[in-house]
Amino acid sequence: MRILMLNYEFPPIGGGGAPVSFELCRELVRRGHVVDVVTMHARGTKRFEVVDGINIFRVLSLRRKNEICYPYEMATYVASAIPFCLQRMRKHKYDLIHAHFIFPTGVVGAVLKWRTKVPLVVTAHGSDIPLYNPDRFRFLHRLLHPMWRKVVRSIDTLIAPSEYLKHHIQTFANIPVTVIPNGFRMELIAPSIRERKILIVSRIFRRKGVQYFLEAIKDMDLDWEIIVAGDGPYLPQLKKQAENIKPRVNFTGFVQNDQLHYLYETSSIFIFTSQNESFGVVLLEAMSAGLAIITTNVSALPEVVENTALLVEPNNPQQIREAVLKLINNKTLREELGNKGRERAKLFNWPTITARYEAAYRVTPGVTDGSSSNI
Fold it and tell me: What is the pTM of this model?
């Protein structure tokens, strides 16, 4: 099968949706498919390269930062990607268009489908759904809601990574949604010698809830290293808050994969107290490394961890404090949760998840086993 894969974010730029789409492409190529990715060009990236058999095309954009993309920057991707893809589709027969994110990438996919009649699959990731991320996109979703509905109606197969996000989508559009979890490569992160480290890995937005963890530990005498890895617009507020608490907090900013894997492998406790998540790939990373996890009992997070973590209410420093103390004072519990998490993470291996994507491709209206198909 020849697949045109669209994502405005693709490694080395972007957050959770970027590595998810990369690993899916990587596994599809391993299974005999041809995958052409059209993504954003950013400083330090090549306009074209082949990585692990994936053909990666980067179109012109105004993106300035790796870790965050603003709406006007997304719009430049849409403007560049549509003519570029149409030109390629005149020369190459694609069996399928697969776009990640309804906005902005689904807009590109919808236009291409309208012009070429090639079937369209879209994976939603969260921020592309109205009211999922009101801190950033409330006004934009209100403004563009008529367009959002048109894009959604043009999709042949819509995929969400969790039951939570499926139901959230269906509150705005009465359409079928297929649930396929995000995957993870277990071999990327391996447990190592445990150190007295408490780790947070996140894009730094207010809704991620890091401020409630800092409030929870503000007067605790901890001989543990506390590390917050990630960058984002809420980071200055967190740094200011950390000036007034007892424990010293190490803010690393954006970190590359090798350093990030080292942090996972050597930490003991992982904190992810987000208010709202469509899935939570960082939980799979922490589970794979065998960390004891504290996360919130809302959105898709309980779906990911099930019984392998301590669950707390969002925005609740007292519950976070109690959970942190429970893990710090109980090495056996840390090890038990870490072992259970590592076993559960195996269920999300990419060969299994990719097979579910292939099954979704097969039943997408308009997809046939043509001459360019390997399904």
Answer: 0.87
